[in-house]
Automatic annotation (TrEMBL):
It is found in: Cytoplasm; Cell membrane. The keyword Cell membrane applies. GTP binds at residues 22-29, 69-73, 131-134. Residues 160-162 are annotated as: G5. Keywords: Cell membrane, Cytoplasm, GTP-binding, Membrane, Nucleotide-binding, Ribosome biogenesis, RNA-binding, rRNA-binding. Residues 14-181 form the Era-type G domain. This is GTPase Era. It comes from Peribacillus simplex. One of its GO terms (molecular function) is GTP binding. Residues 131-134 are annotated as: G4. InterPro entries: G_ERA_dom, GTP-bd, GTPase_Era-like, KH_dom-like_a/b, KH_dom_type_2, KH_sf_prok-type, P-loop_NTPase, Small_GTP-bd.
Amino acid sequence: MDKLFQDTQEKGYKSGFISIIGRPNVGKSTFLNRVIGQKIAIMSDKPQTTRNKVQGVLTQNDSQMIFIDTPGIHKPKHKLGDFMMKVATNTLKEVDLILFMINATEGYGRGDEFIIEKLQTVKTPVFLVVNKIDAMHPDELLPIIEKYQQLYPFAAVVPISALEGNNVDTLLEQIKEHLPEGPQFYPADQVTDHPERFIISELVREKVLHLTREEIPHSVAVVIDSIKKMDNSDTINVMATIVVERDSQKGIVIGKQGKMLKEVGSRARVDIENLLGSKVFLELWVKVQKDWRNKASQLRDYGFNESEY
Ligand SMILES: Nc1nc2c(ncn2[C@@H]2O[C@H](COP(=O)(O)OP(=O)(O)OP(=O)(O)O)[C@@H](O)[C@H]2O)c(=O)[nH]1
């Protein structure tokens, strides 16, 4: 159970979820392939039954960046249900950082307008990543950046060429600076993950936050330890650990005679069964891991305006 956390006790380890958004063809996949390398895989061919896809995980000595896709935010022309739109916007609120990627060789368009409108409702820091700078004259860059900066207070603006690699390392450094201190969520050799794993952890986390209201901070983490089909049955066994910061919080999450944990489990199980389309046996554990949040994320919880740093 402690496996995923064993390397992350030392201070200063940074980790977090990064959503890459942008119009089609701006170069999101090219960027990810460059960052994560050839091993990256398309993880699910299920059309948007899931809310987020982990697209790639970059593990370094001092950090882990988990890049996720936010379905629903890229395709403003499609008729999106309220639900998908809400899910997409909620995801943007929950990640640690948003990369809004644009194509420097194209002008500002309707798709960008749609995305910027959604960004107005989130407090998560947003980087403007201006891609394809190799395909333009440097003099053309500044007016584009200025145009976007008038529309949104970006936490950073980073011009790159995902294709040729220019400035990609600088972008990664800046991302790292903006991530909170946190655990290594995935094993170091894992570059991708089944989207279900992330969704399941989010479903459990949602129930914890919902049922405990203000008593448990939003940065509670849920780690999925295993998802296995049980022998000789259609039931899927899911083991997950809820990570809190203090013993008192552990008490709250477990509840009197385990009542709270049981309620979290039974509510989460229903959702997970819907997600996976089969019967689920859910085993939950609670673990205290002191102070894995750093100051930045605590400030965020108290409403610090992140566009200012
Ligand atoms: N010149 C140039 N072309 C690039 C760069 N990055 C991506 N491209 C090209 O732009 C096209 C689209 O790139 P993708 O990475 O597929 O874009 P995407 O945003 O993932 O596209 P969707 O999956 O449709 O959202 C491809 O032909 C890439 O080769 C870049 O930095 N410079």
